[in-house]
Amino acid sequence: MVYPGALKKLVDMFCRFPGVGPKTAQRLAFFLLGCPREEVVAIARAMVEAKDRLSFCPVCGSLAEDECPYCSDAGRDHHLLCIVQEPRDVLILERSGQYKGLYHVLHGALSPLDGIGPEELKLEQLVNRIRDTGIEEVIIATNPNVEGDATAGYLAGLLKPLAVMVSRIAFGLPVGGDIEYADDLTLSRALEGRREM
Tens of pLDDT along 11-49? Predict the structure, then answer.
């Protein structure tokens, strides 16, 4: 397909976003072209402002604007630590409203094929933090895939000598989901994670 140069550049830029293919990139480009100029400028300004003002907390690794909203919150349980792979995972857990402890973001998961080993994750900071701050319980909330499972297993072994309770979040069927549509691994994990009623 032949695009005008500026449109091709915009579509190519959108294709760099994770999960965005050529068709979605083209839809996004045409959406922006249909917006008033002021709205496009506001979107661009918001992107630049987010890039300029947001950084990663030096303690937990989650996103922060000035000070970390989690590390600086005296109302949180400072004896409980949840380990997640990415900063977006913190936002997802916060949305549930169920977790009130601290976080530690690894910024990835073990993946030897992608060249991500223990050195690329924030593991030394994690061990030092647990050793130095009175953390009593650690919840591992890595993704339920090969990399997440490998990372969780590695973390469990790494943290065992620190005399903290280590658990992993349960996995299973989503609320409102039908058993007939669940895959074998999801059903297996749902059965393993069952609890008494």
Answer: 999 999 999 999 999 999 999 999 999 999 999 999 999
CA–CA distance, 125 with 118 (Å, rounded to integer)? 12
Distance of CA 135 to the CA centre of its chain: 21
Residue 5 belongs to a domain: no
Q: Kindly give, in sequence order, each residue whose CB lies less than 8 Å from that of residue 118, ignoring residues fewer than 6 positions away.
A: 110, 154
Count CA atoms closer than 13 A to 100's CA, side-chain side.
5
- Residue-wise pLDDT for 130-170, tens only, equals 999 989 999 999 988 889 889 999 999 999 999 899 998 87
CA dihedral defined by 5, 7, 10, 12, rounded to 10 degrees? -70
The reply to whether 195 falls in a domain is no
- Give me the number of domains the chain comprises: 1
